[in-house]
Design goal:
single chain; 6 strands; alpha/beta; 7 helices; elongated; about 200 residues; 3-stranded antiparallel beta sheet
Length: about 200
């Protein structure tokens, strides 16, 4: 639509009363749009996740990305984002020198969005996004403790690891991020009495 046509249409509609039929059309269109977004983008990621573990997809905003990156300041090397969503944190990690920068996500629509964002940022082929069901990884905390080196740091955004005590935190509310240094987590696990959780 030509900008001049849009201005004419806006001028024509200005002052025209909105009747019940118009409101119903707007409500139906909004409801249909919300359903399409849920069914096409959000729901595929929930299908394989156990109900008690389901968390909503909430895209990382600039503050969340900044908080995660602040907890990685002074570090380098490999960066992996589990549940990478639309890939914002992976892209920022790559821009700040982390190589390789990899995101894992279950939802195929979010993977496509991640690839598009990487292409748009000029990073296509430089970052990786993989589709994998992380809920198959039994006891993720234990797996991380077994496989990561002492100098590794795990950063969780929005949803902290339930059985670990964070080394540091950044941000507030929905934008909070928690950092866990593997060496510290291992030491606290050794200090706990036998039979306590991870």
């Amino acid at each position: 639509m030509d900008p001049e046509d849009a201005e004419e249409l806006a001028a024509e509609l200005h002052g025209k009363p909105v009747d019940v039929w118009d409101l119903l059309q707007i409500a139906a269109g909004t409801g249909l749009t919300a359903y399409v977004v849920w069914a096409g983008i959000l729901m595929p990621g929930f299908r394989k996740v156990p109900l008690k573990l389901q968390v909503p997809y909430v895209p990382a905003n600039a503050n969340q990305v900044e908080n995660v990156m602040s907890l990685l300041k002074g570090r380098s090397g490999k960066m992996v984002d589990l549940g990478s969503g639309d890939g914002r944190i992976v892209l920022e990690a790559y821009k700040q020198g982390f190589r390789p920068a990899v995101g894992y996500e279950l939802n195929p629509w979010l993977l496509r969005l991640s690839s598009y964002r990487a292409w748009k940022a000029g990073c296509y082929g430089k970052v990786s996004y993989c589709r994998d069901d992380l809920w198959k990884l039994q006891l993720l905390e234990r797996k991380l403790l077994v496989e990561l080196p002492d100098e590794a740091r795990v950063v969780a955004g929005r949803f902290p690891l339930p059985n670990w005590t964070p080394t540091s935190m950044a941000g507030e509310g929905l934008n909070r991020a928690w950092a866990y240094d593997i060496k510290t987590v291992r030491q606290s696990k050794q200090d706990r009495p036998e039979g306590s959780p991870v």
